[in-house]
Design goal:
The structure is a single chain. Helices cover about 0% and strands about 35% of the residues. By secondary structure, it is mainly beta. The radius of gyration is 22 Å and the shape is elongated.
Length: about 120
């Protein structure tokens, strides 16, 4: 399975723009698309992992780079309780914690801009 999607634009290892047209090609080079060169777009193929030339022992400048994770935005608040317990939910605003359970020892602010989508899930 590929992490690249048809219809999306990516960057190559050396920073050039690359378009992916299809990800279900036959054989080893299942990704079909094009890479922007100075004179225009050039047709390209890549493996499901985004590798341009599997016979080469060195990475290629034409390899596709995986998309960067999306940064999160905003803030959330979480209640903390003794004995390593935390609330199982979060709140968008600090004042929503006025109904916290008895024994709360802290209410922490989580700055989401310091984190990315998918972080900690693997």
């Amino acid at each position: 399975m590929t992490i690249f999607k048809a219809g999306e634009t990516y960057r190559t290892r050396d920073g050039r723009e690359a378009r992916v047209y299809a990800t279900d090609g036959a054989d080893n080079y299942s990704i079909h698309g094009a890479m922007r060169l100075e004179q225009g777009w050039a047709s390209m193929t890549w493996t499901a992992a985004g590798v341009h030339c599997i016979s080469d022992h060195n990475p290629s400048n034409a390899d596709l780079m995986p998309p960067a994770p999306k940064p999160l935005e905003g803030e959330r608040w979480m209640n903390i309780y003794p004995n390593d317990r935390a609330s199982f939910g979060y709140h968008d605003e600090r004042r929503a914690h006025l109904n916290a359970r008895y024994g709360r020892i802290a209410c922490i602010r989580i700055d989401l801009s310091q984190h990315h989508e998918g972080e900690g899930l693997t």
